[in-house]
Amino acid sequence: MKTKTAIHPLTASCGMVSDKATWVIIHKVDLQIDSNNDGKIDAEDDIVEGNAPGRLLIVNNGDADNDGIIDNRDFSIDGEPLFTEAKLTISNFPYLENCRIFLSYDASTPPDTEGGALAGGSVRIWAKQSNEARSPLAVKGGGDFVAPVVWNGENYNEGYTAAELGIDVTSTEAGGISVGSGEVTLYLEGINSANAKDISVIVVSNLNYLWHGERFIGGDSAKTTTFDMPISLLEAEFTGGRSLSGEHMNSHGLPLVLNDDFDGHQANPANAAFTPDNEDARSTRITTWQTWAR
Known about the structure:
Low-confidence stretches: 4-20, 231-294
Mean pLDDT: 77
Number of helices: 3
Structural class: mainly beta
Radius of gyration: 23 Å
């Protein structure tokens, strides 16, 4: 999202204050995820980031490093990275080093210890990738979990500073004020199934830096859909146990159904909000995917 802000710097002249120039600063807050699921983050994602289903996240309920701890309860998963990148870029924002950053999303608070019980919510945002050792404490408590902090118009001091989110601010001067830019990569982990949930970012300036009595505010948002369809279930039910390796994924990174009945059809994540806790749920989910595949 781009916001144009007109800045009118005032300069003293013979004891009088006169308006010498008008500056227009275009400040930008951009939250980018691979919203079109084509395997990369680029300008094309901005076009669809507000549309359902948004970025597709698979529930992280496997055990990729075979350590006996389910991955969404494991705080250091050896091997290839599993989390989805989200890039937050803030450009030319007035007094960025003094701003506060607010995040709103359908968060699932991590358990206090590895292997603990899951909380509700569909997504976790981390400051580190899956294969780095992570603390389940919130960032503001010295950990790596980026907990939501929602802007309500009065809770400025509760927001994140740029430094707390790992944003290295570079500042310049424009129109007599300091404008800052910086970026950070955050990491999304799918926890529970949910359709088309928003992740929103709002950047708010300090009350000490106002223009015509108003704060500088900018923001952006993107949607995610989290679904639970383990690769092992697809292999067992649709491929006769054949491995769904990289060449069996479509361009969106989703598994293709490979047996004779459903060869070449993409499994549908939007209708996969079931969990294999019992045989009925498992059968219902398989039927849902088979129906869509036809």
